[in-house]
Write a structure and sequence with these properties.
The complex is a heterotrimer. By secondary structure, chain B is α+β, with helices and mostly antiparallel strands. Chain B contains 7 helices and 10 strands. Chain C is mainly alpha-helical. The longest helix of chain C is centred in the middle third of the chain and has 34 residues. Classes of the chains: A mainly alpha, B alpha+beta, C mainly alpha.
Chain lengths: ~230, ~260, ~400
């Protein structure tokens, strides 16, 4: 079997064996350690996916502090995310967390960056409540011009005209907004110090940046901010 | 001298054929059995939440509630840094005209604009509704089946994910997905898709789209928890899935589909 | 899907709008591996099935198969979005995926081919090693695996190994190309691709393309070398080409007819691929010019009564048409299947870009590379020795 006549075949076989061994070595080196841990995938990929940064606020991020709202959400708006009108409010959450950390638990605070009302409330309302083919009939929706003609609001040109008749949190038409403070009704109050609003644009709102126009809205109108002095 | 010379060419070839057949069968049977075992492991036990006490995530879309506001699309894009023109989730609209035609278009992020489409005269419409779409996180995933390198996989909770460090960008999974929910992310150059916001749900939060939805169209939770919203909804409603005839067994389920929804 | 309602306009899933994921590189890959398989079958017809009339091209066929195989991965690497991770397919293969088989099937086949070439040409290599000097000698020394002699006994041993490798090589070449068909055929998401016939369709048209390529190259190179074309050899190849073409066209037609007859849910869209989106590449290139004409002309060409000159003319003409048929078939399958959106309500379009790493220019360059290698190989090894030399 092993002779001068088969020598070249033995050389070939050894070369192939060498290549095969090289491959197995390379394979071992290149395969991540956690591969195959849970299945045919890199086990640490689970942590990679779970560890990505969370950008958007959750509802709990808001209700964590604002569990009891001064103006509670009505049934219709129970599922509406706070951020849809009030913006992502990351800066607000960061500032309040910082302020809270310096006082005893339960102390009411007013912190900076709490002016979270959008100026273009009407656009935000119409985003969901404009009449669009596809929206179920039972969903309240209007054709804006017709609705203005029907309702004859006091200031139809206002960017938050809807709030002249509807409460934002509980917009059932039977709830009159004049029962309580509302941003359109109250005169613009002095802004609290450092109330440079930094609300990010609300999800789904058109390009108009509420933050830029917000100083015009009343400062203490953030619904659940309890009154209190600066710490 | 050696016995080799007495063997005829025919005998040798027969030996070769036998060796080859045996070799091939062994070499192919083993990987196939391994592959089958893997498929069983990956697709079935996680996908069906086999073990007691484990979480099995599920998703339910109640299309009767969707108003096509697009908040979900915007939230998803921002949360997951999805490039323009690529979608981890989107919302379709089905319009049935009175003359018997059906038109399908897509909600865009602009408010109530349906950019580019001429407005529809409501008087010509018999019925219309919205259908949100996202990854179906199937139990029998065709995408995991075809991924050549194990970059597509299912987490122990039943979430179908992509390992961006393992993916070679061959796009086979994009071809294999019947629902068009996968794409090659042109910023990261790997396959991408809805992950049910794995980075949020692992920390007790909801996916961004579920949080953003103002009407409760999108429901998410642990199907192994009988008290969860999703378990209750699944129990109380008539449930459908997309392209059920393909047998992928999606875990994203629907209320309110019609025959025309694909 | 459209039980009661007619479509009003198109709708394409948004992710489909980004264009096709598999471009001309993925059209080229099965085309090149098809040539690999087809060329090898011609060599095997001589080595295994004893078709002596193919002696003139048998050695060349092996070298051609190898040259195409050497560049089979090039279009794939150009397509991958993360080509530096290409070896993941071999290090961590997921065997439920047909694509995962690629690394091993390909490596196995390439090795087999390289070994068979070293053995088939061993006598010439050794003789050239003995008679050359310097760097050239080093090359032949390496090709001879460091053993620079041969005896009748060693040649006898080699002959047995060559026979065995040829036998193993046929199913290997078939699997190498058949699995490509399965990559498409196993995708239930795509109704244009999903069929059990796909591997066999791909394989039979692959062999068609390989034989056609050999017919053309044989005549071209004979002209360049100012050597006569062996008429019996050409006749045999044209007959083989025709038989496999009949098989390929039969299978392709069966597939289409079955789809049309059953008229399943997506047929009203798929039929538009044939009548509209792929009208030119399917009806004109694949069916008309590429299938119908060669099916008629080839029997006329290989008929015994034909004059050798006429036979050569028909060989060239039909060879070119068939090569075009197979390329357009690959295009119609790969690109065609991606034109229909998964919404089954609309189509996307694809025009290959001119530049770019998946563009036309790169595609043409990639296709030229095997011919360059073949020219280099022909300088090193005698591909056209008159007598087929098994080494005994």
């Amino acid at each position: 079997m092993f002779s001068k006549d088969t020598l070249h075949l033995w050389v070939l076989g050894s070369l192939l064996l060498l290549v095969g061994t090289g491959f197995m070595t390379l394979r071992h080196a290149m395969t991540p350690a956690s591969f195959g841990q849970f299945g045919h995938y890199r086990g640490t990929a689970l942590d990679d996916c779970a560890g990505k940064p969370r950008t958007l606020v959750t509802r709990e991020d808001c209700t964590g502090c604002h569990a009891d709202l001064k103006h509670p959400l009505g049934k219709a708006h129970l599922n509406v995310h706070c951020a849809d009108c009030h913006g992502q409010a990351r800066a607000h959450i960061a500032a309040c967390t910082e302020v809270k950390s310096k006082v005893a638990a339960g102390t009411p605070i007013v912190c900076s960056k709490s002016n979270l009302l959008p100026a273009n409330q009407k656009d935000i309302c119409l985003h969901c409540h404009a009449k669009v083919v596809g929206r179920a009939a039972k969903h309240p929706q209007i054709v804006f011009e017709e609705h203005m003609k029907d309702q004859e609001p006091k200031d139809p040109a206002s960017p938050s005209v809807c709030l002249q008749c509807h409460r934002a949190h509980d917009p059932d038409p039977s709830n009159s907004p004049e029962d309580e403070e509302s941003p359109a009704a109250a005169p613009p109050a002095a802004a609290t110090p450092e109330a440079a609003p930094a609300a990010e644009p609300a999800a789904g709102a058109p390009a108009a940046d509420p933050a830029a126009a917000a100083p015009a809205a009343a400062a203490p109108a953030a619904p659940a901010a309890p009154e209190g002095g600066q710490p | 001298m050696s016995s080799q010379n007495t063997q005829t060419r025919r005998e040798f070839m027969w030996d070769a054929v036998k060796t080859f057949t045996f070799g091939t069968l062994t070499l192919t049977a083993i990987p196939m059995l391994v592959g089958e075992a893997q498929a069983t492991d990956q697709g079935h036990s996680e996908g069906e939440g086999g073990k007691k006490g484990t979480i099995l995530f599920g998703y339910l879309v109640d299309t009767t509630k969707c108003i096509g506001c697009g908040n979900c699309m915007v939230a998803c894009k921002r949360e997951n840094d999805v490039p323009d023109g690529e979608f981890r989730t989107w919302v379709e609209r089905y319009v049935y005209y009175k003359d018997g035609r059906v038109q399908v278009d897509m909600v865009t992020a602009e408010p109530f604009a349906f950019a580019g489409k001429s407005p529809i005269d409501p008087k010509t419409v018999e019925k219309a509704f919205f259908v949100p779409k996202l990854c179906n996180h199937c139990i029998n995933t065709p995408c995991i089946q075809v991924c050549p390198v194990g970059a597509s996989f299912m987490s122990p909770e039943g979430v179908v994910l992509v390992d961006p460090l393992q993916c070679i960008g061959c796009a086979y999974c994009v071809q294999a997905c019947p629902f068009g929910t996968r794409f090659i992310n042109h910023k990261t150059n790997v396959a991408d898709k809805c992950t049910w916001c794995y980075h949020r749900i692992k920390h007790g939060a909801k996916p961004a789209c579920v949080d953003a939805c103002p009407t409760g169209t999108r429901i998410f939770g642990d199907m192994n928890d009988p008290e969860s919203d999703i378990s209750k909804s699944l129990g109380e409603n008539r449930i459908d899935v997309l392209k059920s005839y393909l047998g992928t067994r999606p875990k994203t389920r629907y209320i309110g589909l019609t025959a025309e929804v694909v | 899907m459209h039980l009661m309602h007619m479509n009003a306009g198109e709708f394409v899933f948004p992710n489909d709008l980004n264009g096709v994921a598999w471009t001309i590189m993925i059209v080229l890959y099965p085309y090149i591996t098809g040539l690999v398989a087809g060329a090898f079958v011609v060599a095997a017809l001589y080595h295994v099935f004893g078709k002596k009339e193919l002696a003139p091209v048998a050695k060349f066929a092996l070298a051609a198969s190898f040259s195409f195989a050497a560049f089979a991965t090039t279009p794939l690497l150009l397509h991958l979005h993360q080509p530096q991770r290409a070896f993941n397919i071999m290090f961590m293969p997921n065997f439920t995926s047909a694509m995962a088989g690629f690394g091993f099937i390909y490596s196995f086949y390439l090795t087999l081919l390289a070994v068979e070439i070293l053995l088939v040409f061993r006598k010439d290599i050794v003789e050239r090693a003995q008679s050359s000097k310097g760097v050239v000698r080093l090359l032949y020394f390496a090709l001879a695996l460091g053993v620079v002699h041969h005896t009748p006994k060693s040649r006898a041993v080699d002959a047995k190994w060559i026979a065995a490798l040829s036998v193993i090589g046929i199913p290997s070449a078939c699997v190498l190309h058949g699995y490509v068909g399965f990559i498409f055929g196993g995708i239930k998401a795509n109704p244009w691709w999903s069929t059990a016939l796909m591997p066999v369709i791909f394989l039979s048209s692959a062999i068609v393309s390989g034989v056609a390529m050999l017919v053309l190259l044989y005549m071209l190179i004979s002209k360049l070398r100012r050597q006569p074309v062996d008429d019996e050899c050409l006749r045999s190849m044209m007959r083989t080409l025709w038989l496999f073409l009949v098989l390929a066209v039969t299978l392709e037609s069966l597939e289409l007819l079955n789809m049309a007859y059953e008229a399943g849910a997506e047929w009203h869209m798929l039929s538009q691929l044939i009548t509209d989106k792929l009208a030119f590449s399917f009806q004109v290139l694949q069916i008309g010019l590429g299938s119908a004409i060669p099916l008629v002309l080839l029997p006329i060409g290989f008929a015994k009564s034909r004059s050798p000159a006429m036979r050569r003319a028909i060989g060239v003409f039909t060879g070119l048409l068939v090569l075009m048929q197979v390329l357009s078939m690959r295009w119609n399958v790969v690109i065609g299947g991606q034109l229909l959106s998964k919404s089954f309500r609309g189509f996307v379009s694809y025009t290959p870009e001119l530049g770019g790493h998946e563009g036309l220019l790169v595609g043409i360059a990639v296709f030229c590379l095997p011919f360059v290698l073949l020219t280099v190989v022909s300088q090193i090894l005698p591909l056209w020795t008159g007598e087929e030399d098994h080494g005994h």
